[in-house]
Amino acid sequence: MMNPIKKFEQERIKRITAQKNSSKLKKVTRDFLNETIHSAYSYNFSWMGRPIIQYPQDMIAMQEIIWMVKPDLIIETGIAHGGSLIFYASLLELIGNGEVLGIDIDIRKHNRKEIEKHSMFKRITMIQGSSIDPAVVAEVAKFTKKKKRILVTLDSNHTHDHVLKELEMYSPFVTKNSYLVVFDTVVEDLPKSAIKNRSWGKGNNPKTALRKFLKTHKNFSIDKSIENKILVSVAPDGYLKRVK
Question: Model-level pTM greater than 0.85?
C-alpha cells in the first residue's frame, strides 16, 4: 500500500498539472486579475495589523517557499506599509531563526512608527534609500555575511530599467536552491486600461526586465509549478529559483 503522505502529494501534483493545462481556468484567472486590478483588490488585506499590498495567493506561495528554504535572511525592496516585512518576520519567528531586511527610497514616518512598535520588529531592519544606489547595496551586502540561506523579493519601482538593475545587483545574494521573487510581472499581461498614471506599463515593467536578465543568467530558472498551483498571481514567471 502506498504511503498516504506520498499518495496525497502525488494527487496534488496531478491536480496542479491539470490546472496548468486548463484553458477554462486560465481564462477565469485572467478575467479575475483584470477586474480586481481595476478595483485595487490587493489593498484589501493586512497581516498582523499592517496593510500588506499583495494577493492572498502570492502570500500563500511565499509562505510555502519560506518554510521550504528556511532562510537566514530575507531581503525585500519596497516597504510601503510594512505588511510584507511583518509577514516574513512572523514566519521566521515560527521557524525560530532568521531576519528581514527592507529597503525603500521613502519610508514614511507614520509607517516607520507602526513597524517599529510591532512585536515582529525584533527580526526587522530597514534601510532608507534607493535600492539601486551602490552605497545601499554595499550596506545590504554587510547583512549577507555568514548567512547560509538568503531569499530576495523585488517590489519597489516597477520600471524595466530599475528592476533590471535590482536583478543584477541583488541576484548574487540569493543562495542556491533559494528564490528571487519578482513581483508585479503581471503588468505586461494586463490591458492598458488597467495601468494609468504610472511610469511603467506594457513593454516597460518587471517581466520585460526579468526576460532580459534570464538571457544571461542561467543560474536562475522560472519555477512555473508555483503559478500553476496558485493560478492567481501578480508575479507570473516571477518566481525564480537559483539552480546553480
Answer: yes
Q: Count CB-CB contacts under 10 A for residue 116.
A: 11
CA distance 100 to 148: 14
The 10s digit of each residue's pLDDT in 174-231 is 999 999 999 999 999 988 777 777 899 999 999 999 999 999 999 999 999 999 999 9
Q: List pLDDT tens digits, range 90-133.
A: 999 999 999 999 999 999 999 999 999 999 999 999 999 999 99
